[in-house]
Structures are given as structure tokens and as C-alpha cells.
Design brief:
By secondary structure, the protein is α+β, with helices and mostly antiparallel strands. Helices cover 45% and strands 20% of the residues. It is built from eleven helices and eight strands. The strands form three sheets. The chain has a three-stranded antiparallel beta sheet with strand order 1-2-3. Strands 4-5-8 form a three-stranded antiparallel beta sheet. Strands 6-7 form a two-stranded antiparallel sheet. Helix 4 runs antiparallel to helix 6 and helix 8 crosses helix 9. It is globular and about 75 Å long.
Amino acid sequence: RERTGAGMMECKRALVETGGDLDAAAELMRKQGLAKADKKAARVAAEGVVMVEKAADGRAAAMVEVNCETDFVAREQDFRGFAADVTRAALAARAGSVEAVLAAKLPSGDTADERRRALVAKIGENISVRRVVVVESQGQIGAYLHGGRIGALVAIEGGDAELARDIAMHVAASNPRYLSAAQVPAAEVAKEREILTEQARGDAKNQGKPDNILAKIVEGKVGKALSEITLLGQPFVRDDKQTVEKLLAGAKAKVTAFERFEVGAGIEKRQDDFVAEVMAQVKGASGSKH
């Protein structure tokens, strides 16, 4: 499956027909037009697009990241059309996993995965649906997209649609990792406290200070560090004089969930870009003539 990008049953049929010979099975599938994506599945797909689709009643939204290998393809109409169809299918099916959305039917009648493999064969790049999330709320769903590369969804209770969108924009811009300090794992807090304690002890300004004073200094720094990674503790992007927590309190609203996708986040990209790759091939070809 890694080698051909084909479905499990197609791989199984080809292997049975060729007596378990991998090379022969891959060749058979290429002849049958099932494995035109041969060897593309191993390529790094770190470009792409994030798309969002909201339900008509505003109570649910889906967000999907679809990846490809180059920024050129990320702007291509067929690729973006596929990503849009997948996002709509994810919302309609309330698909909370990649497996569920790949199995979902698109308007054309084929599944998202069947369309994906056909697109790989047509475009010639590895294409993958990397992640999907569906957020639902009894209140408002805020959605924000930045250039098709960063997307955010926020579910709030209380407040209005404008507030929900403002918080989604904040999440896109500030990238909080947790909702509140209470949600930060204890091990992470302990590690941060340990690091900050060592820093405080090594600071010349703190030499000779008793342990209880050092502890207060450290706790202040821990609190600041936690505020920087939590949505409620961060200064609001449109008014840094108040935190998101204070903004919500003023509107008698609360955030119940949030999600943020950024294209390629966490994927190790190729060090060489497409142009450099082509130039290397050209130089190699010209060098072989001498």
C-alpha cells in the first residue's frame, strides 16, 4: 500500500494474482491503472491547504488539512476543489478522523480516498488528508482562515458571532496550546518550574536571597510562562490591555473548545526546494556530457 498508494483490497487481489510477488503485483497494478501513484506515497507532503466549512445553523464546523508536495500544486484548482469537497464531506458525515473522512462519499459518488488517488495519478505528487476535526456547540462556532495556511475553530457559550470569530482569529494568530493553566499537564508545569528554579539560582541578582523569596520569584515566572501558552491567559490580539479571559468575562461567555491547524506544522520538510532540485538535475545532466 505504501508503494502504490492503492486500497487494501486492490493490493490483496494483486498479491493473490501474482502469488505474493511484490514487484510483480506492483507492475500488475500499474498496468491496470491502479498504481500510477507508485513511489509517490513516500514523498514528503508538507505544503497544502487548510479549509473550513460551517453548518448553516452555525452550530458545527469542520476543518481539514490536505497536503501536497509543492506550493504550486497547493494553488492548483483541482487540488483546492478536492480539499473543499473533503471538508464539506467531513462536516456532513461529522467525520472526526482521517479514516472516516477518506471513506466518506463525495458529490461525484466516489470516496474521498478514491478521488485522492486519482488526483495523485493526475497531478504526479503525493497528496494526503493529514488531519480533520469537527467542532460542535450549543452556542456559537467561530471560524477564521489566514491565507489558506492557518485555520482556527472556536466553540463558545454566550457572546455573539462576532466575539466567536474574534477569538478564532486570536487562536490563529497566537497559537495557544491549552485553554487554561489548569489544563497544562502537571509534568510540563513541573519541568518548567525546575528550569526556572535553576535559572533563578544562577541569576546574580538573586544571590543570597532566601529560598522562600526565590520560590515566589519562580512561581511568578511559572505563572507568566503558563499565560503565554494558554488561550485564557494570553493578551487579546485586538486589545493587548486585556487578556482573553477578561474579554470573555465581560461578554459573559466561555470557550468550550478550540482547534488550530497550520499547514505542514510538525512535518519535516525537504531541505531542497523544487527549483534547486531541477537545477541539480540539469547540472548533473550537463556534467555527464564532459
